[in-house]
Amino acid sequence: MSRDPVAEIRDLRVEIDGRAIVDGVDLRVLPGKVTALVGASGSGKTTTGLALLGEYPPGARVTGGIRRTGEGPVGYVPQHPAAVLNPARRVGALLHDIARPQVRHLPRAERREAARQLVLHALADAQLPDGEPLLRRHPHQLSGGQQQRVVLAQALLLGARVIVADEPTTGQDALTKSRIVEQLEQVAARGIAVVLLSHDLDVVRALADEVLVMRAGRVVESGPVERLWTAPRHEWTRRLLDEQRAAPRDGASVDAGQPVLEVRDLTAVHDRGTVVLRAPHLTLHRGECLAVVGRSGSGKTTLARCLAGLHRDHDGEILLDGTPLPRSLRHRDRSRLAAVQYVFQDARAAFDEHRPVLHQVARTAVRLRGTGEREATDEALATLHRLGLAADLAHRRPGELSGGELQRAALARALLARPRVLICDEVTSGLDTVTRRGILDVLAGLAGEGDGLSLVLITHDLDTARLADRIAVLDAGELVEQGPAQRILTEPQHPFTVSLMRTTERLETGTRR
Amino acid sequence: MTTLPGRQRRFVLGLAVVAVPLVLALLGPLFVGDPGPRATSFTLGGDHWLGTDFVGRDVWQQVLLGGRTVVVTALAATALAYLVAVPVALISALTRLRWLEELLMRPLDVLLAVPSLLLILLVASVLSPGAAGLALLVALVNVPDAARIVRAAAGEAAARPAVEALRMQGETWWRIAVGYVGRSALRTLAADAGIRLTGVLYLVSTAAFLGVGVTPDAADWAVMVDRNRTGLLVQPWAVVVPALLIVALTMGTNLLFDAALEKKGRRP
After folding, report:
1. How far apart are CA A198 and CA A79, in angstroms?
2. CATH number of domain containing B203
3. Which residue of B has its CA nearest to A333?
4. Is residue A97 part of a domain?
5. From CA B33, how far away is CA B65, in angstroms rounded?
6. For residue A122, is it within any domain?
7. pLDDT at residue A93 above 50?
8. Among A207, A242, A277, which residue terminates a domain?
């Protein structure tokens, strides 16, 4: 069925300071179809997607045409949903603002209830079926996944005819991911055009009708999803689709002696005394890589933050080499601060936007190891180089680096402390396949380096968890299962782990429904 | 969208507007000749370029003399207010000790509840301060506002992962507070400073109208506006010129701050 496109981009070229970010892109957005733009970060996906909204980066020179037929706004679900949710207002207020004008035709007495129904309906459509308690929370009290679904609900409430979803499944666990796929499928089935900007190829394969492969601002290949997967024509497409998996580690470098880090009877609470995490016992040996797996909101980030000393409201003990660590990092001395380092999920937010990356990376060595300014800079450059970040990029400010580049810099920043334990909180979740593969390779090479570096990988993604020697599974704040990676991945015991595995497999094989 | 020429134009405009009152205020007193004999009140023309004021003094001379108190007092009061407000705000934004934050911020709330002019008049009636005392008083009543605004901007920056990352690196309090949080709050602070200077100018002028800090017949732009009002229809220059100079000063500073803040937008 060849319907008219609801939006069309023709020969779009976006240029900043003489450098083309997007060059010669053609895009037809058909109603009821899912059009996916795939490519590495920095390939111009987001710029193209935003062009559909009529938005361009500041200072950009734009040539080429955007044509939108049909009415209704274009909805945009951004990669970092927190940025578009007013932090000062509750979720309920944010959604009611949109719903209220839509019920104005009703008698005054019925409006409130009608608006409430619209909001709850939109929440349910955005895969937040039990959304009512969420309405009373502020955006920062939601997990990243929940925030994203609230933004999606906003777009659905607005009655958008085209929805541009920028990495909608990024940062989501396998179960939620498959639900998002279903959701976007339903959205498309209602005749809404979905433009999916993603580097999550499993999702693209399961969802998209048409795929455009982008590289450095150009479309290198486009076509129906099946054709692209079975017979990629362009070399770059082939590389992008080449999802070789990391082989499970053999665990040879793991030392079975005294654990580096030991968690005993940990109970973490959030401000009002709600228990968000219970971990009776968890150990990390020298040179070991431990993956903590769970859905968003399962308490895995809280666990990581407790270890790093960033979340101090907890009972129980965290032992480093058998001696208790102070709860807050403010009370940890230099050597203990250096021993446990933490890499943040959102690398961009974790860098000072005013200073060059290199300077920030080098400061770790200066502060925590007392290295001189010059040696620290040299060491920073060497480490950045080893992690695959060129020197000219290192001298720039964070705003000029891509997400993947910044994540490498963040890893380097933590490594310069020469830590015993490196905690990585979802460090690959915002990245495209090629970049993610690169970071995972870096991580795989890190475990056991130096004086037996141990890794804690916080992830929702079982592909990342394959890297680990041992896996701990968290569900709703409880540590439900832990054991060697091989066993958890092949014969999971707990029902939650089983369902997590099954969904992942289904997504990977690309089966719909 | 080339913002630079527009920004430069605003810079030049702001600078030009603010330069007139500033130069007059700071250098004016150097160029005042002999006061000469007093003439008739409220005359136009003759030997007097801008006419004479309510007691027959030359208006132009009064304009040259009368800026220093207003401008210097206002600038000093604004600077003083931030000197107190910024450290208080940064400390309370970055501490996790609840009591310390309460201790720093709550007394300011009490001060906030008292109308500023009332407070100034009250203290002035007891102590009868000079120009320096007035600057101190005006600074004091501006501290709560300024501290709250800087605290809010700094609080947002202090909650970012970047601050946690800096702590993880073992950075010093100074580096985190001034180097990152303070710098992130700078835009808000500068915007606030533009408005605050205006507010302070009017407060100083109002205080002068009411005779606080300066004598009733002093050469002072604000006092001139007040005293010469009676002759406004006979001799408008004695009111219009000092009033325009005050307006130029406030408008010029706001234009300057706007131009300084108008950076190239950040990448989305």
Report:
1. 10
2. 1.10.3720.10
3. B170
4. yes
5. 11
6. yes
7. yes
8. A242
Instruction: Please indicate, yes or no, whether residues A231 and A268 belong to a single structural domain of this protein.
Output: no
Total of domains in chain B: 1
Is A363 in CB contact (< 8 Å) with chain B? yes
Q: Are A5 and A69 in contact (CB under 8 A)?
A: yes
As a whole number of angstroms, the distance between CA B199 and CA B193 comes to 10
CB A402 within 8 A of CB A378: no
Q: Which domain holds residue B237?
A: 41-261
B162 and A308 in contact by Cβ < 8 A?
A: no
Same structural domain, A223 and A315? no
Separation in Å, CA of A405 to nearest CA in chain B: 16
Encode pLDDT of A204-248 as tens digits: 888 888 888 888 788 888 888 888 878 888 877 777 776 544 444
Q: Are residues A466 and A317 in the same domain?
A: yes
Nearest residue to A421 (alpha-carbon basis) of A266, A322, A282, A290 = A290
Judged by CB atoms closer than 8 Å, whether chains meet at A363 and B171 is answered as: yes
Of A242, A275, A290, which residue sits at a domain end?
A: A242
Is the same domain home to A83 and A217? Answer: yes
Nearest CA in chain A to B1: A59
Tokens 């770790």 identify what position? A364
Q: What is the pLDDT of residue A409?
A: 92
Q: What is the pTM of this model?
A: 0.66
Which residues from chain B sit within 8 angstroms of residue A41, using beta carbons? none
The partner residue sitting opposite A367, judged by closest CB among B161, B162, B170, is: B170
Task: Show residues of chain A in contact with B161, CB under 8 Å.
Answer: 344, 346, 349-350
Contact B170 A337 (CB under 8 A): yes
| Residue A120 lies inside a defined structural domain of this protein | yes
d(CA B243, CA B24): 13
Interface of B with A (CB under 8 A): 1-3, 96, 160-162, 164-172, 179-180, 183-184, 264-268
Question: Does a structural domain hold residue B209?
Answer: yes
* Shortest distance, CA A139 to any CA of chain B (angstroms): 14
State pLDDT tens for residues B161-210: 899 999 998 888 888 988 899 888 888 888 888 788 878 877 887 787 77
Q: How many domains does chain A have?
A: 2
- One domain for residues A265 and A229: no
Do residues A498 and A489 lie in contact, with contact meaning Cβ atoms separated by under 8 Å? no
Does residue A76 fall inside a structural domain?
yes
Determine the distance in angstroms separating the CA of B167 from the nearest CA of chain A, rounded to an integer: 8
The b-or-e profile of A348-385 (16+ CB within 10 A means b, else e) is: bbbbbeeebbbbbbbbbbbbbbebeeeebbebbbebbe
Are A296 and A346 within one domain?
Answer: yes
Q: List the domain range (segments joined by +) for residue A445.
A: 261-350+419-509
Global ipTM? 0.71
Same domain, A433 and A490: yes
Question: A252 falls in which pLDDT band (50, 70, 90)?
Answer: very low
pLDDT tens string A318-364: 888 888 888 888 888 888 888 899 998 888 889 998 889 999 999 98
Nearest chain A residue (CA) to B96: A330
Whether A341 and A489 map to the same domain: the answer is: yes
Judged by CB atoms closer than 8 Å, whether chains meet at B1 and A308 is answered as no
Output the six-digit token pair for B14: 């702001």
- Closest-CA residue of chain A to B152: A88
> What is the CATH number for A238?
3.40.50.300
Q: Which of residues 471-500 of A touch B (CB under 8 A)?
A: none
Residue at B25 is within a domain? no
DSSP string, B80-143: HHHHHHHHHHHHHHH---HHHHHHHHHHHHHHHHS-HHHHHHHHHHHH---HHHHHHHHHHHHH
For strands A289-294 and A470-475, give the pairing: parallel
The confidence band for A172, taking pLDDT boundaries of 50, 70 and 90, is: low
Q: Give a yes or no: residue B34 inside a domain.
A: no
> Nearest C-alpha of chain B: how many angstroms from A70?
27
Chain B: residue whose CA lies nearest to A346: B161
A417 Cβ under 8 Å from any chain B Cβ? yes
In a domain, residue B173? The reply is: yes
Whether the Cβ atoms of residue A263 and residue A281 lie closer than 8 Å to each other: yes
